TrEMBL record:
It is found in: Cell outer membrane. Homotrimer. It is a multi-pass membrane protein. This is Porin. InterPro entries: Gram-neg_bact_OMP, Gram_neg_porin_domain, Porin_dom_sf, Porin_Gram-ve, Porin_Neis. It comes from Massilia soli. PANTHER family: MAJOR OUTER MEMBRANE PROTEIN P.IA, PROTEIN YDDL-RELATED.
C-alpha cells in the first residue's frame, strides 16, 4: 500500500513498481550467427520506478502539485533514462477548473495517448518492440497543458530543448537557435460508452545546428471497444524521420485484446506490423501475456512473442535485441511485478 502523509490542505505520496523476470530468447544476432540466450530482464509488464507526488490546496479550486519519479533497473540497481536521478518525471505545476499546467521533464503527448490503446500498455513484447522512441520519449525543459471534461481529454506540450543530457547538454536550449532540440506535441481522446478513440501528433527538431530545421514527426490514431468483459484495441502510427542520416517513413499498426479468463487470471494478445515505406523492410510481431493477480499489488506473468522479418529488417521480440536481417526470433519471459 502506498505510504502517505496528509494534512487538511496538502498530501505527499511515495509509490513505486518493481518488475523483473527470467527470459529465454532464440534467434539473437551474434555476429553472423543466430544464437539463443537466457537472461534476467526488467520492465516486462510495467517499468520499475520509485516516485514521490504531492498536492497542496491553494484555495478557490486551485492546487499546486509536483511529481518526482526515478526509473531504475532492478537487476542491477542502476538509474535508467540516461542515468538521470528523476528520469521518468520531474515536474511542478498548477491545476484547477482550467485544467493542469506542468513544467519540467515529462512524458510526451503520444506516450500519454498510447497508454489507452494497447492491450497491456508498454509491455516489452508489445507495440514498443520495434522502436521505443515511437512512444516513450520524455521531454526535458517542457511545458504541458492537459484538460479533461466528461468523456473528452486533450493535452499540448512544448519543449525548449528535449534532451539536456545527450552531447553534454549542447543539444538543448542553445543560445541563438531555438530550433535545436525543440519538441511540440498534442493529443485528444473521446470516450462514449464502450468506445474510445484518440489522435496524437509529435514533432521534434534535430539536435545540432546542422540539422535543426530537419524534423522527426509521428502521427497517431488509436481506438478501443469494450465488448462485455473483453476489450478490443487497434492503432496506427506513421513516423516520418527527415533527419539526413535516416530519411525514412515507417508505418506501425497493431490490433489486440485483453480478456479476463477466470477470477484473477487474464490474457492479453496482440499483432504488430512494421513497414518501412518504399523498401522491402517489414516485420511482424505476435505476442501474448498470461497474467495472474496474486493480490491487488502483485502480479505473476508469462509473456511469449515471435518476430519475423523481411528485407533488411532485424526486429526482435523487444527493443533491446535484434536478429539477423530477414531473420526471426522467439522469446518467453516469466516474472513478477509488485506495486507499492
Amino acid at each position: 500500500m502506498s505510504s502517505q502523509m496528509a494534512s487538511a490542505q496538502s498530501s505527499v505520496q511515495v509509490y513505486g513498481i518493481v518488475d523483473l523476470g527470467i527470459e529465454h530468447l532464440s534467434g539473437v544476432a551474434n555476429g553472423a550467427a543466430e544464437e539463443s540466450q537466457t537472461r534476467m530482464t526488467i520492465n516486462n509488464q510495467q517499468a520499475s520506478r520509485l516516485g514521490f507526488r504531492g498536492t497542496e490546496d491553494l484555495g478557490g479550486g486551485l492546487k499546486a502539485l509536483f511529481n518526482l519519479e526515478a526509473g531504475f533497473a532492478p537487476d542491477t540497481g542502476v538509474s535508467l533514462q540516461g542515468g538521470r536521478l528523476f528520469g521518468r518525471a520531474a515536474t511542478v505545476g498548477l491545476s484547477g477548473d482550467f485544467g493542469t499546467v506542468t513544467i519540467g521533464r515529462q512524458r510526451n503527448a503520444i506516450f500519454d495517448l498510447h497508454l489507452q490503446f494497447a492491450p497491456l500498455g508498454y509491455t516489452s513484447y508489445g507495440a514498443v518492440a520495434p522502436d521505443m522512441a515511437f512512444f516513450t520519449q520524455r521531454a526535458d525543459n517542457s511545458v504541458k497543458y492537459a484538460f479533461k471534461r466528461g468523456g473528452f481529454s486533450s493535452a499540448l506540450l512544448y519543449s525548449f530543448g528535449r534532451d539536456a543530457v545527450a552531447g553534454g547538454g549542447t543539444q538543448s536550449e542553445v543560445a541563438g537557435n531555438s530550433k535545436i532540440g525543440r519538441q511540440i506535441g498534442a493529443n485528444a481522446a473521446y470516450a462514449s460508452g464502450p468506445f474510445t478513440v484518440g489522435l496524437g501528433y509529435d514533432k521534434q527538431n534535430g539536435t545540432s545546428a546542422a540539422i535543426a530545421s530537419e524534423t522527426d514527426t509521428r502521427t497517431y490514431a488509436g481506438a478501443k471497444y469494450m465488448l462485455s468483459a473483453t476489450t478490443l484495441y487497434a492503432g496506427f502510427m506513421r513516423r516520418k524521420n527527415e533527419l539526413a542520416a535516416l530519411d525514412a517513413t515507417t508505418d506501425l499498426s497493431w490490433v489486440g485484446l485483453r480478456h479476463p479468463i477466470a477470477g484473477k487470471l487474464g490474457i492479453g494478445a496482440w499483432l504488430v506490423k512494421t513497414d518501412v515505406k518504399d523498401t522491402p523492410n517489414e516485420a511482424t510481431l505476435i505476442g501474448a501475456s498470461l497474467y495472474y493477480d496474486l493480490s491487488k499489488r502483485t502480479q505473476a506473468y508469462l509473456n511469449l512473442a515471435r518476430s519475423s522479418n523481411d528485407g533488411a529488417s532485424r526486429q526482435g521480440v523487444s527493443s533491446s535485441v535484434q536478429t539477423l536481417p530477414g531473420g526471426a526470433m522467439s522469446g518467453i519471459v516469466a516474472g513478477l511485478a509488485h506495486t507499492f
